[in-house]
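Q: I have 301 residues here and want to know how they pack in 3D. Can you give me a structure?
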Amino acid sequence: MLTATTPDTGFTSFYTSARDGLRLHARDYGPLASNALPVVCLPGFARTGADFHELALALSRDEAKPRRVLALDYRGRGLSAYDKDWKNYDIRVELDDLMQVMVAAGIEAAVFVGTSRGSLLTMALGAARPAMIKGVVLNDMGPIIDARGLLRIRNYVGKLPLPRSFTEGAEILKRLSDQQFPLFGDAEWELMARRTWTDRDGTLKPDYDANLMKVLEELDLEAPLPVLWPYFDGLNEVPMLAIRGANSDLLGEKTLTEMGERHPDCETFTAPGQGHAPMLGSKDMVRRIGRLITRAERRAA
């Protein structure tokens, strides 16, 4: 385990090793020692822990109850090492990586906030280590996955043009996704660009291993996708907040409704003007997630 504080970021870089020795990174916010239930944030397929920065700052600096927040970079993303074998970008390997990080960080149980793939990982963890989960936020992913969204993601992961600046990157993302996020202004697109590409030796490159595209290329989107209700039902013992972007093409309205009906303690919310996946840093989203955490702490007490 290795930690390194970066000035003025609000977090410490936490490094540990996967079972196969690959170096893994997470952003570690807030106090290490706290009576508050920690929060673990799990990003989307080609995303990083940076997506949770505003949420993590708000939760870790809460005046009444500051808490530890860990936001992971999966292998091949962000500051985690890239795997020489792209076939290890597999949810089973990433689940084991997650458990290794949890042990190294000394976190025995937490509230999990999962965006897209992070929601799938959370459901998998619920089957493998249910005692680790005290509350769940599933952000724009559920037991039934719409193949249209996977097709859209497959068409751009590892295939985006390399921008000369973050401003140009923002324009690329706006052209690609403005129908999903019609309320975004220049500041939001710029922020998304800075979390999609990273400056490496003066050149902007994707903040993930381009070989991730091979994982998506192997998917047979003509065949029926697995239905994951048994994994979802495995989370019935903990409070849940299920979020859907109003313009999402991965999580359908019908599925969100059924999630709310099947789970005994599930609040559902549709984020207006957002697609896949809604950003979680707004004051409203922070309040909603804060309420879920409060419910989880009461249940766990």
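Q: Anything worth noting?
A: The two ends are 30 Å apart (CA to CA). The CA atoms of residues 86 and 212 lie 7 Å apart.
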